[in-house]
Every structure is written in structure tokens, then in C-alpha cells.
From TrEMBL:
UniProt-recorded name of the protein: Hypoxanthine phosphoribosyltransferase
Keywords, alphabetical: Cytoplasm, Glycosyltransferase, Magnesium, Metal-binding, Nucleotide-binding, Purine salvage, Transferase
Keyword Mitochondrion: no
Entries under Gene3D superfamilies matching the protein: 3.40.50.2020
GO biological process: GMP salvage; guanine salvage; hypoxanthine metabolic process; IMP salvage; purine ribonucleoside salvage
Cited PANTHER family: HYPOXANTHINE PHOSPHORIBOSYLTRANSFERASE, HYPOXANTHINE-GUANINE PHOSPHORIBOSYLTRANSFERASE
């Protein structure tokens, strides 16, 4: 088993880059069908979504726009339970077809907050694309999760944009912690 260390913690390979990219290609095809004749606005949630957004957007063939915003709720490995203010959310989303792009939905707290704020700005539609979803960790019901890359167990993962204490975002593959 391919193992690596990020800071003090050991991780093992979980999803290889090739597997990730194949899944993203399928998500892109699905979106191109769903948004035919429209011009969706993809809003990436920084920092974690930057690689997913880059690879996903290359699969999109309908006209589209891209923006990024930021909200931080995690320190180390556990949720603080608090979501900070949204920073950089585009102002002019009224009437737009918005697709929120996340790297991971864990408890769902971050996304619940983002969806509430975005819907107040009266977009024509909102959907969510997340590369990873931990169904057993969800504490908040989310109805707009249209495009899920992989459903994964409730384990801490790192790589392909996801960090452990700021490190590991540059890893091509996704790894899971070997112990809690
Ligand atoms: O569903 P939740 O339990 O709210 O967790 C999901 C959030 O946690 C991660 O962000 P993080 O706060 O780690 O910031 P980052 O993207 O900069 O790593 C991830 O990108 C989501 O936004
Ligand atoms: N890196 C990382 N960030 C997260 N944010 C919420 N869950 C996770 C996770 O499993 N890994």
C-alpha cells in the first residue's frame, strides 16, 4: 500500500488522480447536458476547490463564467462548528444559474451557510458540485447536491486541494489517514 507522511500524520492512497479525472469527465458531461442553452456561473469555494475547479471547467463546453469565494471553518482535523463570513462572493448573481464547487462536504455546515447566503441574492438556480461527500458525517440536510464525485467513509482525507494543517494540497492523488 502506497503510504505517505504529511507533517506528523501517516496517510495511505485512496483515490488516484486517474480515477478522479475519469469521474470529473463524467460530471462535466452531465453538466453540459443539464446546462445546454444556459451560461452557468461556477463559484469555487477556496482554498480546497482550486484543483477540482481547474479540472472540471476544462470539461465544460457550454458558455460559462468562473468566480471564487472563501469561507473557513476547519482547524486541524475537526470542525470548529463555526462558519466565518463569506468573502468575495460575486454581487451580481441575481438571475444567474449558479453552480457551487466544493472539494468536500463533511458535516454540511459550510455549504448550508453558503447556500442560504447565495439564495438571498435571487439566482435563477443553484446547484452544488462536490468532489467528495461523507454521507455518514452529514449533520445538515442539503437538497441541492446535484453533482457528487465520490461518496466516501467518514475518514480524514488529504491531497488534490485538500489539506492537513495547510499541507498536502499539492498532492496529485487523494489519501486517507491511517489512524484517527
Ligand atoms: O461540511 P463541512 O463540515 O462544513 O466541511 C466542508 C468544508 O471544509 C473544507 O474547507 P476548510 O474550512 O477546511 O477550508 P479550505 O478549503 O481552505 O481547506 C471544505 O473545503 C469545505 O468547505
Ligand atoms: N483535508 C480535509 N478537509 C476537510 N474538511 C472537512 N472534511 C475534511 C477532510 O476529510 N479532509
Amino acid at each position: 500500500m502506497h503510504k505517505i507522511k504529511v507533517e506528523d500524520k501517516e496517510f495511505e492512497i485512496f483515490l488516484e488522480n486517474d480515477t478522479i479525472n475519469k469521474r470529473i469527465r463524467l460530471l462535466g458531461i452531465q453538466m453540459n447536458v443539464d446546462y445546454e442553452g444556459k451560461c452557468p456561473l461556477f463559484i469555487g469555494v477556496l482554498n480546497g476547490s482550486f484543483l477540482f475547479m481547474a479540472d472540471l471547467i476544462k470539461e465544460i463546453t457550454v458558455p460559462c463564467e468562473i468566480a471564487f469565494m472563501r469561507v473557513a471553518s476547519y482547524e486541524g482535523q475537526s470542525s470548529s462548528g463555526k462558519v466565518k463570513e463569506l468573502i468575495g462572493l460575486p454581487e451580481n448573481i441575481e438571475g444567474r444559474d449558479v453552480i457551487i464547487v466544493e472539494d468536500i462536504v463533511d458535516t454540511g455546515l459550510t455549504l448550508t451557510h453558503i447556500l442560504k447566503t447565495i439564495k438571498e441574492k435571487k439566482p435563477a438556480s443553484v446547484s452544488v458540485s462536490t468532489l467528495l461527500l461523507k454521507p455518514s458525517a452529514l449533520k445538515h440536510k442539503i437538497e441541492d447536491l446535484e453533482y457528487v464525485g465520490f461518496e466516501i467513509p467518514n475518514e480524514f482525507v488529504v491531497g488534490y486541494g485538500l489539506d492537513y494543517n495547510g499541507l498536502g494540497r499539492n498532492l496529485n492523488d487523494i489519501y486517507r489517514a491511517t489512524e484517527i
